[in-house]
Design brief:
Four copies of one chain form a homotetramer.
Chain A lengths: L2 H13 L8 H16 L7 H7 L1 H22 L3 H15 L2 H4 L10
């Protein structure tokens, strides 16, 4: 996800004077709504069926999740790259390769 | 979000042999769980209170949302930049600046 | 769900002086968090596996969903029986038996 | 929520031959989608604004949450009254009145 794309998302918001509504709590709620719209494609369906029939909506809803993630990060002052590298580092502690390889269990159950 | 970061996310998954579990339906469910963990920081709290007290967890949970978004996109074969530009273009049709400026209403109510 | 059970839920809240926090928006957020905790039992698992291994947590989280539903209804002034009968009546219009029998499609696709 | 209402919900399902789709995982996903639709009424709005403008949709979506809760409980074999009383009892241990009165903090922070 380019810096250029992030700039487009923020420009879209500012051209419409929407920043006034974008407090972190309502942005987190928005993220929740968009993820539900993505998940709806899989209701009563297997992954295969959903992906074969509903790619246009899946593309749209994942894009909404990413757009709101960018807006949330900007509202709170977070750098996407930094927080991801930090979390991968934490996950490496919780899920060391030798313990976690091939296992789906949560770290509390390893 | 660099290409380099996306590569780190996929490498983390593959070092642990986790791709076998990453079908799109369960990845969409995972996205839903992580967004709820982000939203939890705002339960019973204003944006201000949440941001002043819970930044470490907010950073962690937003990172999880981004990580699962990358894993989902890779599992389904979607390009993050493409789908975002496509959605911004659709949103421009639904929310033309002259109609939507300063308004929070959904496009169906404009 | 007895009237007696609903009374216990409200009494639990009032014994702890919690009504002051129970505005509808935060109660809707709470419902969202509890449903995610219920759904977590099914992450990476089939229905069969989740039900065979995680019934205690499933019981707990579904109870939380019901408890917050009762608290939300009380905060907004809704009667559970009334709103359910109203929705079943609406659903009967959207999903008449002759059109909907055996089909999982949304009414917009029938 | 009467036994009679629960019977109506199950009859509605069976008249339409829908039980075949109602595995617990997809019912948990459905609960997640309906809670999001309830929460949507509060996006960008205070509780007061949402309740003054959107009661019809709030009634509808809370009804859907209750309907899916009943369907989920029936699919898994849970008694609504039992699980609620059990959870209130657990909550009484986590949130004794003398420690929890007037406080919104999670039990881990009391």
């Amino acid at each position: 996800m380019d810096e250029r794309i992030i700039a487009e998302i923020l420009k879209f918001r500012d051209e419409r004077g929407w920043k006034q509504y974008h407090n972190p709590k309502d942005l987190a709620i928005s993220l929740s709504l968009e993820v539900a719209e993505l998940l709806e494609n899989f209701q009563w369906s297997s992954s295969e069926e959903a992906v074969s029939k509903r790619i246009p909506n899946i593309r749209e809803e994942l894009a909404d999740v990413l757009i709101y993630s960018v807006l949330f990060a900007e509202a709170v002052g977070l750098d996407l790259n930094d927080i991801i590298m930090e979390k991968l580092s934490m996950n490496n502690q919780k899920y060391p390769i030798e313990k976690a390889f091939g296992k789906k269990e949560k770290y509390t159950e390893l």
